[in-house]
């Protein structure tokens, strides 16, 4: 859709967040008013979820997004799936997300690199925009769900009480981000359909539009305080 000569996305949009456990649930609650208002202003369906869809421990809520995407695929839903981790915050409530994604409608996945000079496939999945209106976007979602269920057994999930630790037999636990990266590595057409955000709009720790308050920035309590301070600043109209 053209507005003043500029392409804007008219696709349906969902903004999803999920968390489990006191620390991340508190972060989710802290950012809720900002994200709820942003979604209302942009005709986006806001879908926060608290709990664990598949697994036995709070940190396994990181797998929820994969199950949420499979639900949308099964329902035949088409549109943009915007995902933010519980420790991510929209810092520019007036950011024109429909213009931003309208210019990238030909891509299946929009995400930021996991680190400077990282391989193209080594994206950060703490914030990403997946186009389920795109055939390859749906393929990414399906392959991610399939590899997760093929790789992570119920016994593995039950044994992994702490995040990103080795399993009792010494094997590394294959986390959700690495599994998505494997999908992109293995299937070149999917990697070709990836748009990498390299201009700082979305970035770990310093993003202008969306910023993620990662573990390297401090303890969960310290990160929560930083998030609450940023939200108070936004709601006070001083940013």
Secondary-structure map:
Blueprint: E1 2-3, E2 6-7, E3 13-19, H1 22-41, E4 45-50, H2 64-74, E5 80-84, E6 88-90, H3 97-102, E7 109-113, E8 123-131, H4 135-151, H5 154-159, H6 176-186, H7 188-192, E9 194-196, E10 202-204, E11 210-212, H8 220-235
Parallel strand pairs: 3-4, 3-5, 7-9, 10-11
Antiparallel strand pairs: 1-2, 5-8, 6-11, 7-8
Helix pairs in contact: 1-8, 2-4, 4-6
Distance between the termini: 30 Å
- Taken as a percent bin, the fraction of beta residues is 15-25%
How does the helix and strand content classify structurally? alpha/beta
What summary fits the major beta sheet?
6 strands, mixed
Instruction: Flag low-confidence runs.
Output: none
Q: Percent of residues in helical segments? A: 25-40%
Rg of Cα set: 17 Å
Helix run count = 8
Features:
11 strands, 239 residues, 3-stranded mixed beta sheet, 38% helix, single chain, alpha/beta, 6-stranded mixed beta sheet
